[in-house]
Design a protein that fits this description.
By secondary structure, the chain is α+β, with helices and mostly antiparallel strands. The protein folds into two domains: 86 residues, Roll (Ubiquitin-like (UB roll)); 241 residues, Creatine Kinase, Chain A, domain 2 (2-Layer Sandwich). It has nine helices and 13 strands. Strands 6, 7, 8, 9, 10, 11, 12 and 13 form an eight-stranded mixed β-sheet that branches. α5 crosses α9. The chain is globular. The termini are far apart. Bound molecules: adenosine-5'-diphosphate (ADP) and manganese (II) ion (MN) (3 copies). One manganese (II) ion binds next to loops.
């Protein structure tokens, strides 16, 4: 029987890229090949030269449709010569991995997000136009007063597992209506592929629940935690010894490096990295063991074992995982080479 391939790509929306998709019906036995779309409707082309090419790069079962149906993640390319479209950030991640793959970079991304009422834009668990009790009981909480949206989170986790994505966990977050899932460990390219697919599944499944998923970095101003994408990183050398852990932290703090990284860490970084709510200020760099107020945290277990990984706590929830992974790979692997 014919089957459906959902072609998924990342658009050119500024300042935060969004995921787009459309459906292709394929004959039994046919493989998903090149396709295209109207780039003038996604901020990726002008109307007089509107076609942008979709190149399949990663596919997995479609856990929502089931059967033989699949999800197909694509890179965007120019019609002229099939070179990467200027908005295609995966191409740089591929280059970084080609250059430093011998160091075996691994990532674990913690994607935080907030569930919103699609009409009012107010977070789940917040009374209409008002505020719930202050933060404290919600993180990893249980019970109907503290927890909102768990059914969607469970459905999303199941979907990611059925799709074969490297989802490694989920938890309720510090602000009501805020949640997290983690993808990893995976390399510089794969972590972005799986994270974008997991985002697609989350946004798509949320439609069924009449919920909007927001990856805005600071959806509620004031005394409410923002939403980040903590980035855990290691190389073979870091997984084998502590000198490489220290060298990686020093490389991340070298002159000009924090500023360069923050540019790729998502929109609204100053709003979220205030120095409060488990963050370091955006204009200061620090690293430390167990320190959730540092830019980079060395987990307690890593200090204990004398090897492992580091956690860059700065990337925003709305960051592009390909951009973040490319920055860390290039900065740390060039220093450790
Ligand atoms: P936190 O304690 O900061 O909440 P999480 O448990 O949410 O941390 O996320 C940690 C992430 O780091 C997971 O995705 C996990 O797979 C990943 N991870 C574990 N070990 C490594 C490693 N050596 N290198 C990179 N990522 C790792
Ligand atoms: Mn976490
Ligand atoms: Mn978290
Ligand atoms: Mn974390």
């Amino acid at each position: 029987m014919a089957y459906r391939a959902e072609y998924i790509w990342i658009d050119g929306t500024e300042p935060t890229r969004e995921v787009r998709s459309k459906t292709k019906i394929l004959a039994d036995g046919a493989e998903p090949g090149l396709w295209g779309f109207d780039g003038s409707s996604t901020n990726q082309a002008t109307g007089d030269n509107s076609d942008v090419v979709l190149q399949p790069v990663f596919q997995c079962p479609d856990p929502i449709r089931g059967g033989d149906d699949i999800l197909v993640l694509c890179e965007t390319a120019l019609t002229a010569d099939l070179s990467p479209h200027p908005t295609n950030t995966r191409a740089a991640a591929r280059e970084a991995l080609e250059k430093y793959g011998d160091q075996e970079p691994w990532f674990g991304l913690e994607q935080e997000y907030t569930l919103l009422d699609p009409i009012t834009g107010w977070p789940a668990g917040f009374p209409a136009g008002g505020f719930p009790a202050p933060q404290g009981p919600y993180y990893c909480g249980v019970g109907a007063v503290k927890i909102h949206g768990r059914e969607l989170i469970e459905a999303h986790t199941t979907a990611c597992m059925q799709a074969g994505l490297k989802i490694s966990g989920t938890n309720a977050e510090v602000m009501p209506g805020q949640w997290e899932f983690q993808i990893g460990p995976a390399d510089t390219v794969e972590v972005g592929d799986h994270l974008w697919m997991a985002r697609y599944l989350l946004f798509r499944l949320a439609e069924n629940y009449g919920v909007e998923v927001s990856i805005e970095a600071k959806p509620m101003k004031g005394d409410w935690n923002g939403a980040g994408m903590h980035t855990n990183f290691s190389t073979t050398a870091m997984r084998e010894g502590y000198d490489a852990i220290t060298a990686a932290c020093e490389a991340m703090g070298a002159e000009g490096v924090p500023e360069k990284h923050l540019k790729g860490y998502g929109v609204g970084i100053e709003d979220r990295l205030t120095g409060a709510h488990e963050t370091q200020r955006f204009d200061q760099f620090s690293y430390g063991v167990s320190d959730r107020g540092a830019s980079i945290r060395i987990p307690w277990q890593v200090a204990q074992d004398g090897k492992g990984y580091i956690e860059d706590r700065r990337p925003n929830a709305n960051a592009d995982p390909y951009v973040v992974a490319t920055l860390l790979t290039n900065t740390i692997c060039s220093a450790l080479a």
